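Lab notebook, bench 4. The sequencing result for the construct came back, and we need a structural model before the next group meeting so we can plan mutations. Quick request posted to the team channel:

Model the 3D structure of this chain.
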Amino acid sequence: GGYGDNETARAVRDHPIDIFIAKRRLHSDLKVMSGMSLGAETLGAEAARDAGVPYLAVLAFPRMDDRWPDESKRRFRELVDGAEETITLQNAAPDTNAKIAGAFKRRDAWLASHADEAVVVWDGEHSLVGRQVRSLRDELGEEEVWTVSPLELRT
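Done. Here's the predicted structure in token form:
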């Protein structure tokens, strides 16, 4: 996903594969949407790919990966190229950190408004992710938001 291959990254990628395969059995038209940020979001796209489920790459802005390490950029490109569809929500890359944060916030809102369910990687601690989980539960319903804790996945 972008932070290198390790036990936690493998667990975060592999656990949703089972969820996606089970959901696909219930809903043959299942598609996964990923915001494609470095880390859990790219691991989610990898999980969809590995489960054989079509996925959409939803980019906050072009060249999201400009600041990333070369290996992460390569993996990102492969995932974007393998997506059923790529949606870029903003035409130009933001030029300040505040504008970058705003673009990601708009992307997250777009994802929430276009999803039926969500799988969120959250350790239960990070307050920003906690607010996103609460917002998704408000938007989609409590039972439509799955949280996956990387701490519980490690063996």
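The chain has a mean pLDDT of 90.
Will bring this to the meeting.
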